Amino acid sequence: MQHTIKNVSETEQQLEIILPAEEFNPEVEKEIQDAKRTIQIKGFRKGHAPAGLIRKLMGQAIEAKVAEQLASKHFGDIAEKESIKPASRAQLDDYSFEGEQLTINLSYEVHPEFELKDYNDYSFVENIYTVTDEDVENEINLILKGHGTLVSVDDAAEEKDTVIADLVKMDADGNELEDQKTENHSFNLEYLPADNPFKEALIGAKADSTVKVETKPENEDDEKFTYEVSVKEVKRMELPELTEELLKEITGGKFEDIDKFRQDVRQQLEEHFSQKSEQDLLEAISSKLIEENPVPTPSAMVDSFENMLIENAKRQFGGSFPEGFDDKELRASMRPNAVKHAQWMLISQKIAETNSLEVSDEDIKEFAEKEAEKNPGVNAEDLVKTYMSTEFRDYVTDSILKDKIYGLIKSQVTIEGKNTPLPKHGEG
């Protein structure tokens, strides 16, 4: 057997395999004999058709099958021998049986070869969140909103109020547009962006007042419109008093003691923002390394991440997109993110290889024991067996290796803590 590898690009290769007759002829004969036993040809009893006739009728199909089988058989061996890192399955481009030799041409994608830039001088900021009493009360108030009541007030509208108003749309000359009147529109000011023109105009407005709102066109050439907004009512959320009885109802009986509930809310906030701080730091690290190492990515790897992102989007719709939804535009918007995922995979693999990072059975056992500590109802030995099983081992190994990679990077870069207030509701 002979083989030749041709680099088409940084992520693409072509492989030519040349096999002598003594290697492919036995395979061809085997296929002919198999076909002879299974197919029925008119005029011959099953299994008694001449081999020459079988070859004549099925020669092309048999040759295609043999070429594919031999390509699959030899590609793995050649990849191992030549230290090829395939990023996609090898595709059979073409083949030819010419006398005493079979020539097979394959194409496939590979992990690119690259040198990782030194990252020891990189510095990152890690947000350190401290949960205050005010943060706890704000979180409790959000919980109480589900049991609150919107009441009309005579005061001027504030940032968290709801305004009920009639709208009339007018053209640039101030003329009312036909069929462009909306009655009893509800503006929930709390959830409108800070720069929303309706929010800007309605904060400070009272019932029975009228304000004018001029839209801000996205493009200079777009037509400007003005809305005449007649405020009919300003509503404000009135929260109920947190009593032991209400607390029991809200928490499904989990809490009756208000102080213990506050402690739990504080703990939940601290855990959430500790995780957010860590996640933000890891994202900053990966983004910096991707920026400094713009690795070429195999399209098959990017396709895989793109499909993963699409599946995640589907779950937001309950498992499938609405009928008639065309995901082409969504895929196009997700492609850059999929490229970054692929780049980070290549970079993190490089870091693992360079630093000989591996996951041992002892690592998996330790990981399982830590997970069991977080869940008192879980037996550590049972969890170890689960994580060691074929079904879960790859997933757990990836998680542990990911932690090792980030741990190594964090130990070699500069990380400065920054005291940061908790973001307001809707900001993080």
From TrEMBL:
<keyword id="KW-0697">Rotamase</keyword>
<keyword id="KW-0143">Chaperone</keyword>
<dbReference type="InterPro" id="IPR046357">
    <property type="entry name" value="PPIase_dom_sf"/>
</dbReference>
<protein>
    <recommendedName>
        <fullName>Trigger factor</fullName>
        <ecNumber>5.2.1.8</ecNumber>
    </recommendedName>
</protein>
<dbReference type="InterPro" id="IPR036611">
    <property type="entry name" value="Trigger_fac_ribosome-bd_sf"/>
</dbReference>
<dbReference type="InterPro" id="IPR027304">
    <property type="entry name" value="Trigger_fact/SurA_dom_sf"/>
</dbReference>
<comment type="function">
    <text>Involved in protein export. Acts as a chaperone by maintaining the newly synthesized protein in an open conformation. Functions as a peptidyl-prolyl cis-trans isomerase.</text>
</comment>
<keyword id="KW-0413">Isomerase</keyword>
<dbReference type="GO" id="GO:0003755">
    <property type="term" value="F:peptidyl-prolyl cis-trans isomerase activity"/>
</dbReference>
<dbReference type="InterPro" id="IPR008880">
    <property type="entry name" value="Trigger_fac_C"/>
</dbReference>
<dbReference type="Pfam" id="PF05698">
    <property type="entry name" value="Trigger_C"/>
</dbReference>
<dbReference type="InterPro" id="IPR008881">
    <property type="entry name" value="Trigger_fac_ribosome-bd_bac"/>
</dbReference>
<keyword id="KW-0963">Cytoplasm</keyword>
<feature type="domain" description="Trigger factor C-terminal">
    <location>
        <begin position="258"/>
        <end position="409"/>
    </location>
</feature>
<dbReference type="InterPro" id="IPR037041">
    <property type="entry name" value="Trigger_fac_C_sf"/>
</dbReference>
<feature type="domain" description="Trigger factor ribosome-binding bacterial">
    <location>
        <begin position="1"/>
        <end position="141"/>
    </location>
</feature>
<comment type="similarity">
    <text>Belongs to the FKBP-type PPIase family. Tig subfamily.</text>
</comment>
<dbReference type="Pfam" id="PF05697">
    <property type="entry name" value="Trigger_N"/>
</dbReference>
<keyword id="KW-0132">Cell division</keyword>
<dbReference type="InterPro" id="IPR005215">
    <property type="entry name" value="Trig_fac"/>
</dbReference>
<keyword id="KW-0131">Cell cycle</keyword>
